[in-house]
């Protein structure tokens, strides 16, 4: 009994000493408070900032300030994770993945193939009961992206709240009928690696959907390489598109600068090598379909995206060299020719799209273009709040912009 009492008294003594000696004395408390105040001051002065809004015309700038105020509000990155690579790596794991049921459709293309579309029809929409006039949004994912990516699911969720309909293009898979008599009824999925300069399939899909719902407001959003593809399409076609407006997120403006940044040692280790292996895996499953065009053994030895593009993508899509492909794929070259309102969100700390490659001066020359540049956010990150699970700054920009275009687009 005495031993138990002694142990209890000793435990209480230790607890009291730790509390008094470290915090009660004021030393520990002062350190904690001092560090917290210093960190808060640094965060509020150097991390939390309003984005830079760059537009080529007063009309679009005023429109965004009035109807898409998020682009002028201070962006507060997650206080414990604001660094570019941390934001980029964390988002897929920390953000929620809402449950979405898609309807799949296959549409024919001019080369005899079929493209796979995932539809979210939103038939329960109470805002737009008439399906023929329900606003429709096209989503284009990033490299190796699917309709199950968290950023895609969040866009679907926000669009559902607005009453809109969405559809998603699977850019890496294309269906072809086998033409051999013995196998006339069989189909093969052929991987179409992301060539963001080849816009033929995208144009086919856009006109197909517009023919289904010619009276519905029609918009598009592209993420990362999906945004590059979208901008290249808009730059080529100018005003001759059924789209009312478009938004892009974390676009790589200059392909040469992007690959150079991703080949820096840390970026290669964290991102480049992984994405390269994903691309290799997607084409290796069907290597028998490419052996006559490319040296698949050499493709499988690629250690970077540049090497993969040099040995596979540029060859399959008929470019004379990797430089020709990268020149054609860089959307900054066609930004002057974009003929509809486009909002482009980029973070200047994005290792996939370095700051010096963002075409600020070119954007100022086109009244249809608005660049929204945050100081932090990484690549498709834009995490905000203490625990950024339900939404991000990028999600809010998407929601406000598409809603503004649908409801107030006539002001532009």
Automatic annotation (TrEMBL):
One GO BP annotation of this record: phosphatidylcholine metabolic process
One GO CC annotation: membrane
Entries under InterPro entries matching the protein: AB_hydrolase_4_CS (IPR000952), AB_hydrolase_4_sf (IPR050960), AB_hydrolase_fold (IPR029058), ABHD4 (IPR012020)
Top-level taxon of origin: Eukaryota
Broadest EC class assigned to this enzyme: hydrolase
Protein localization: Membrane
Main location: membrane
Membrane topology, from the record: Single-pass type II membrane protein
Descriptive protein name: Phospholipase ABHD3
Organism: Vombatus ursinus (Common wombat)
């Amino acid at each position: 009994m005495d031993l138990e009492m002694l142990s209890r008294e000793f435990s209480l003594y230790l607890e009291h000493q730790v509390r008094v000696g470290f915090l009660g004395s004021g030393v520990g408390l002062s350190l904690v408070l001092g560090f917290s105040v210093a960190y808060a001051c640094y965060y509020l002065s150097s991390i939390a900032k309003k984005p830079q809004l760059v537009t080529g015309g007063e009309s679009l700038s005023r429109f965004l300030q009035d109807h898409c105020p998020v682009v002028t509000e201070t962006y507060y990155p997650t206080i414990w994770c604001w660094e570019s690579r941390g934001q980029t790596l964390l988002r897929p794991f920390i953000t929620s993945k809402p449950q979405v049921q898609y309807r799949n459709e296959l549409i024919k293309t001019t080369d005899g193939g079929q493209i796979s579309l995932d539809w979210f029809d939103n038939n329960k929409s109470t805002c737009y009961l008439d399906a023929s006039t329900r606003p429709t949004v096209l989503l284009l994912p990033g490299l190796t992206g699917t309709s199950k990516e968290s950023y895609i699911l969040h866009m679907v969720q926000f669009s559902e709240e607005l009453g809109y309909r969405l559809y998603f293009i699977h850019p890496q898979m294309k269906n072809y009928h086998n033409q051999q008599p013995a196998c006339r009824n069989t189909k093969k999925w052929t991987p179409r690696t992301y060539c963001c300069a080849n816009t033929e399939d995208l144009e086919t899909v856009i006109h197909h959907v517009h023919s289904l719902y010619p009276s519905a407001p029609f918009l598009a959003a592209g993420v990362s390489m999906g945004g590059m593809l979208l901008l290249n399409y808009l730059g080529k076609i100018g005003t001759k598109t059924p789209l009312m407006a478009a938004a892009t997120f974390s676009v790589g403006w200059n392909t040469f600068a992007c690959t150079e940044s991703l080949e820096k040692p840390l970026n290669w280790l964290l991102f480049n090598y992984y994405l390269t292996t994903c691309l290799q895996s997607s084409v290796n499953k069907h290597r028998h379909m490419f052996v006559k065009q490319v040296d698949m053994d050499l493709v499988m030895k690629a250690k970077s995206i540049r090497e993969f593009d040099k040995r596979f993508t540029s060859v399959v899509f008929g470019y004379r060299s990797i430089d020709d492909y990268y020149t054609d794929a860089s959307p900054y070259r066609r930004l002057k020719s974009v003929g509809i309102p486009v909002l482009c969100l980029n973070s200047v700390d994005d290792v996939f799209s370095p700051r010096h490659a963002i075409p600020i001066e070119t954007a100022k020359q086109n009244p249809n273009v608005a660049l929204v540049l945050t100081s932090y956010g990484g690549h498709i990150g834009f995490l905000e709040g203490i625990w950024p699970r339900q939404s991000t700054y990028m999600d809010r920009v998407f929601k406000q912009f598409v809603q503004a275009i649908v409801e107030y687009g006539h002001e532009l």
